[in-house]
UniProtKB/TrEMBL annotation, chain B:
It comes from the Bacteria. InterPro entries: Beta-grasp_dom_sf (IPR012675), Mopterin_synth/thiamin_S_b (IPR016155), Sulfur_Carrier/Prot_Modifier (IPR052045), ThiS/MoaD-like (IPR003749). This is Molybdopterin converting factor small subunit.
Length: 149, 91
């Protein structure tokens, strides 16, 4: 996620991590096209979204994580992020590439317009992410930062 | 004449949790009018008060985004599959 966000900077990068439906386990990273190619907005390409969503449906997967980058602001959901959040089961992960040396990664639930931050626990190559927010909600989600398989 | 409609998670409150529902109609707007008779409120989540598609809801007939095939006037044939997907977008 961080590498993708860095690569597309100064435009926003976006994608998902799919996993088995109901597992809450993010396993398969899918980098999506930002159809807006914008530093302030993102939107999945509609044809690509259909293809990816259909593939998940056929393989009993769901988007466990939906991520995008903020390239000039902090890793916190914007008003537009909240307005368009449409997957109540997903973890919305924000990556800020504002600082060239330090990426910030934070994770949220966005349900019915309400933002709830959740803890991020790092495994694998911890140097891949330099700062992250420790949350205090009971469930934690684990991000494996090892090289993509 | 029957069309299969795939409902995204967030709109399943209108279909009693059903992931796939059946509908009828020669065009997409006729289909949504038909669906609304059984799935109250579904149409309003896809079509605006002015009768246009919501900008941040994608509707596909088979594999085609209907924005490129005539929008709500898109013709439907027996056995077509309609998919509704909220756009994944933000700032």
């Amino acid at each position: 996620m961080v590498a993708h966000a860095r690569r597309d900077h100064p435009d926003e990068a976006c994608g998902i991590i799919a996993g088995p439906a109901g597992s809450d386990s993010p396993e398969r990273l899918v980098e999506m096209i930002n159809a807006e190619r914008s530093p302030t907005f993102y939107r999945f390409d509609s044809a690509e979204q259909l293809a990816v969503w259909r593939w998940m449906d056929d393989h009993d997967e769901e988007p466990v994580v939906i991520y995008h980058s903020h390239t000039a602001t902090e890793a916190y959901p914007s008003r537009t992020d909240v307005k368009f959040a449409s997957e109540p089961n997903a973890h919305y992960v924000l990556i800020s590439t504002r600082e060239p040396e330090t990426a910030m990664v934070r994770s949220f639930r966005i349900v019915d317009g309400e933002i709830t931050e959740e803890p991020v626990e790092l495994t694998g190559d911890e140097l891949a992410v330099q700062t992250y927010k420790i949350g205090h909600t009971p469930t934690s989600i684990v991000y494996d930062c090892a090289e993509p398989r | 004449m029957s069309v299969e409609v795939r409902i995204p998670t967030i709109l399943r409150t209108h279909t009693g949790g059903e992931k796939i529902v059946k509908g009828d109609g020669d065009t997409l707007s006729a289909l949504f009018a038909d669906l609304d008779t059984r799935h109250n409120g579904l149409s309003g989540r896809v079509i605006t008060g002015e009768g246009a598609l919501h900008r941040f809801v994608n509707v596909y007939v088979n594999d085609e985004d209907v924005r490129f095939t005539g929008g709500l006037d898109t013709a439907l044939n027996d056995g077509d599959s309609v998919t509704i997907l909220p756009a994944v977008a933000g700032g």
